[in-house]
Every structure is written in C-alpha cells, then in structure tokens.
Amino acid sequence: MAATMKIKKGDMVQVLAGKDRGKQGRVLEARPTDGSVIVENLNLVKRHTKPKPIRDASRMGGTQIIPGGIVEKASPLDVSNVMLVCPTCKQATRVGVKVKEIKGETVRVRFCKRCNEEIDR
C-alpha cells in the first residue's frame, strides 16, 4: 500500500461500501501505513470490556474503577471504500493533486475533479 493518501484527518467522507454505505462522516484518524481511515460514528463495532482499576488516580482514599460492559467504538475502514466530499459542491468526488509555486516553494494542493475547486486552502 502506498504511504500517501488523498484523504486526511478532518476531511468529510462518504462511505461507498459496507454496512454504512451512503453515510457521511468526519475522518478522526488516517493511517497511511494500513491504507485505512477511522470515520466518526461509522463502522461501529461492539467490544466487551472488563472493569479495570485506575492506578494512582487520586491517591486519596479508595481505588477508582473504569466501568466494564459493552463499548461501541469506530473501527477502521479501507481508504478505497470512502470518497471525499467536496466542501464547495457538497458531493462525493475524486481527488486530484496540483503542484503550485507559492513564495518560491512547491506545494501539493488537492482539488475536486467535479468543480475544479481547491480543497486545501
């Protein structure tokens, strides 16, 4: 898997495949090494956890405990199953990359392939 992805943390994406197909959410974490992203409130899985004591929580009195039970948490989605939502045209779109010269530096800028507007400003 390539180390560069066209989807970054904070982007709004739409899910293309899986149980949450068609839903939109914000990217909480991008993992280029795995080629996956974690999307807020999408692809939720349930984990059964045991109660755990907190070590040196307050040093005053009894021990505090992290409650156990069934916890829902977002699991990673493959980056090929999500598509970026353009902030200007509000539609799921493919992403292109332009190389620009800004103050003598070359900068890679993402743009929407539907409306040709820049995504990174």
TrEMBL record:
<dbReference type="GO" id="GO:0003735">
    <property type="term" value="F:structural constituent of ribosome"/>
</dbReference>
<dbReference type="InterPro" id="IPR041988">
    <property type="entry name" value="Ribosomal_uL24_KOW"/>
</dbReference>
<dbReference type="InterPro" id="IPR057264">
    <property type="entry name" value="Ribosomal_uL24_C"/>
</dbReference>
<comment type="function">
    <text>One of two assembly initiator proteins, it binds directly to the 5'-end of the 23S rRNA, where it nucleates assembly of the 50S subunit.</text>
</comment>
<dbReference type="InterPro" id="IPR014722">
    <property type="entry name" value="Rib_uL2_dom2"/>
</dbReference>
<dbReference type="GO" id="GO:0006412">
    <property type="term" value="P:translation"/>
</dbReference>
<dbReference type="GO" id="GO:0005840">
    <property type="term" value="C:ribosome"/>
</dbReference>
<dbReference type="GO" id="GO:0019843">
    <property type="term" value="F:rRNA binding"/>
</dbReference>
<dbReference type="InterPro" id="IPR005825">
    <property type="entry name" value="Ribosomal_uL24_CS"/>
</dbReference>
<keyword id="KW-0687">Ribonucleoprotein</keyword>
<dbReference type="GO" id="GO:1990904">
    <property type="term" value="C:ribonucleoprotein complex"/>
</dbReference>
<comment type="subunit">
    <text>Part of the 50S ribosomal subunit.</text>
</comment>
<dbReference type="Pfam" id="PF17136">
    <property type="entry name" value="ribosomal_L24"/>
</dbReference>
<protein>
    <recommendedName>
        <fullName>Large ribosomal subunit protein uL24</fullName>
    </recommendedName>
</protein>
<feature type="domain" description="KOW">
    <location>
        <begin position="6"/>
        <end position="33"/>
    </location>
</feature>
<keyword id="KW-0694">RNA-binding</keyword>
<dbReference type="Pfam" id="PF00467">
    <property type="entry name" value="KOW"/>
</dbReference>
<comment type="similarity">
    <text>Belongs to the universal ribosomal protein uL24 family.</text>
</comment>
<dbReference type="InterPro" id="IPR005824">
    <property type="entry name" value="KOW"/>
</dbReference>
<dbReference type="InterPro" id="IPR003256">
    <property type="entry name" value="Ribosomal_uL24"/>
</dbReference>
<keyword id="KW-0699">rRNA-binding</keyword>
<comment type="function">
    <text>One of the proteins that surrounds the polypeptide exit tunnel on the outside of the subunit.</text>
</comment>
<dbReference type="InterPro" id="IPR008991">
    <property type="entry name" value="Translation_prot_SH3-like_sf"/>
</dbReference>
<keyword id="KW-0689">Ribosomal protein</keyword>
